[in-house]
Amino acid sequence: MDLEEQGTIKRVAEGSGRDRMIVLLGTPNKSSTAMIALTLTQGDPSYAGPLAGVPLGLPIYHILELEVREAIPSDVYAREVGPLEDVLDVEGISAALKSVRAGR
Amino acid sequence: MTRERRAIHVPVIRAARFVLAHVPGLVVLGSKPRRELAREGEALRAQLRAHLRSFHDAVAYFPHQIMIGNEVPEALYEIPRPWHGQPTDNARASGAAGLIVDQDTFYAWLARADTADLVVLEDAYAARIAAGLTGVRVITRDAAGVALAVASGAEPFYDDGANKAIRVAGVVLPGDEADESLQAPVLLENLAAKVTGALALRRLLDEVAPDQAVDFLLGSGEEAVGDRYQRGGGNLAKAIGELAGVRTPGGADVKAFCAGPVHALILAGALVASGVHRRVVVVGGGSLAKLGMKFRGHLAVGYPILEDVLAGMAIDVVADDGRSPELRLDAAAVHRIGDGGAGHHMYGALAQAPLRTLGLRLSDVDRFAVELHNPDITEPAGSGDIPANNYTMLAALAARAGEITRDQMPAFVRTRGLPGFSPTQGHIPSAIPYLPHAIRGLTEGTMKRVQFIAKGSLFLGRMTGMSDGASILLERNAQLAGKGVTS
Asked: Using a CB-CB distance cutoff of 8 angstroms, which residues of chain B are in contact with residue A86?
């Protein structure tokens, strides 16, 4: 996530819509998932961007997580996500998010 | 008397040739090194120079031997990486699919390619490569004159490399000092593309049907040739043909970022099928801007700078000769505006959909050629193994279609995919480096079908958020069917 994106998200989160925001990730592996999830919950771990030291604590999910999948009509999910379930490391991505949510 | 109506022909791809110009002295002029060196200066320059390869090492590099047809891609599965640590014994610079030329040869051709008196060689350097300049009207200046030109906006090109000698070999003068499109660095880029494209075309025409006239050249390189009023004016194809010494063809360029060559092959096939032309050659030169693009990653892991070659290509498309693989125009596909841009949408549109129109499945294709970037080049820079990722996506589509089980995906990738072996020259890695190997497998070997899939990042130009892509299916010639086929 580049610094500009961090700034945009910070502005939106600090506006009036904070309670209606959730983050839905489409990151391709567990390390990028963990990095962005940390940035948007506990603050930029690299201390380089506008979210350094800013724990937004946003609720965060990944498109490949079971709970998300169940919330989307199956035909839409199959068309838009489909084979990515077979290509990407679903378990690793889910574990990375669980770890971030648990505050580790 | 009226002429007879032109017949519809089956187009075939008869041959493909690749030329790699090993130009370590130009690596510092690649876009990324140029920017980083301007920021960080001499220490980084010295570090970069210390990691340049010799011509001998570039020739012995196994992926380059595959590009010129002396080795097969599948052999890389058995060779430990990094591949520069496993040089080929007794490697030759010439092969059935092309050749590798050294820097002196390239610079001599740069002088030969100059029709506007803008390439100036330094006296002593010109004397050293005099043998390569026979018949070329060369402009030379002494070292002081060359330095003066550089101070006035000329672009220097260097005579260095693994021998560590740092010397300006020559310069390209600006075409018009007030025209951004004719600045010296732009002209050097364009001349580099012209030279490498012409060398590939010359090689093809020397070896394949030299007596049969070429009717049309379709350029599909990455350069933008023009002036201030039309900076991407184009038709480098004709300039490439002129330099290669052919007089019969006309030409035009096809642009679609990295997908350009496969789009051009579809159009070439259509021109031949319709009888508009009998022999069309798709040509393209190398990308100087991409030299050293990932050099930071290579320095970080102690590799030599692996992006030190410019690649040119020439692909011969003619009407059915009873032997060469057929270009199935009824299974040619392009990524349409309404198609999705995710990986599986792209491959669904470019791989699966055209096969379905013929009643075929993914498993009916012997090999897929996708973007064949060499992972030795891309992985140290954090870009991953691009072909491996793409083949996994194809395997996932086959699994979703019920052709294979999920457990069979790795075997699908191994048997129907390829290891990456192409230099990261943008349009060059986009499937086409496998053409010489596919032609051989589809004529002398046991293969029946090979699909070539290319993608292009249109969004980089800021005019759209879209990607692009195109694919072609090559099939064993119907007149060869059965002969030598065991599968």
From this structure: 395-396, 399-400, 406, 409
The answer to whether B399 contacts A87, with C-beta atoms less than 8 Å apart, is no
- d(Cα B71, Cα B97) in Å, to the nearest integer? 10
User: What is the distance in angstroms between the Cα of A19 and the nearest Cα belonging to chain B?
Assistant: 30
Give which of B426, B484, B472 is closest to B12, Cα–Cα.
B472
What is the separation of C-alpha A31 from the centre of its chain, rounded to a whole number of angstroms?
Answer: 12
According to CATH, what is the number of the domain B326-475? 3.40.47
Segment B146-176, tens digit of pLDDT: 999 999 999 999 997 545 567 899 999 999 9
**Does pLDDT of B483 surpass 60?**
no
Q: Which residues pair with B219 in a beta bridge?
A: B253, B283
Mean pLDDT, residues B1-25:
89
**Cβ atoms A26, A90 nearer than 8 A:** no
Would you state the pLDDT for residue A104? 61
Domain ranges of chain A: 3-101
Q: Phi and psi for B424 in degrees, rounded to 5? A: -80, 65
Interface ipTM > 0.85: no
User: B395: which chain A residues are within 8 Å (Cβ-Cβ)?
Assistant: 86
Rounded to an integer, the average pLDDT of A83-89 is 91
In tens, the pLDDT along B29-58 reads 999 999 999 999 889 999 999 999 999 999
What distance in Å separates the CA atoms of residue A62 and residue A68, rounded to the nearest whole number? Answer: 7
Looking at residue B164, what is its pLDDT? 54
Tell me which architecture the domain covering B11-102+185-319 has in CATH. 3-Layer(aba) Sandwich (3.40)
CA atoms of B224 and B82, how far apart (whole Å): 34
**Range(s) of chain B covered by CATH 3.40.47:** 11-102+185-319, 326-475
CA dist., res. B62 & res. B91, Å (int)? 9
Section B202-229 average pLDDT: 97
The total of other beta-carbon atoms located within 10 Å of residue B207's CB is 14
* Cβ–Cβ contact B119 with A under 8 A: no
Interface touch B396/A80, C-beta < 8 Å? no
Distance from C-alpha of B288 to C-alpha of B295, rounded to nearest angstrom: 14
pLDDT given at position B161 = 55
**Residues of B with Cβ-Cβ distance to A84 under 8 angstroms:** 342-344, 396
Q: Please give the average per-residue pLDDT across B435-462, as a whole number.
A: 96
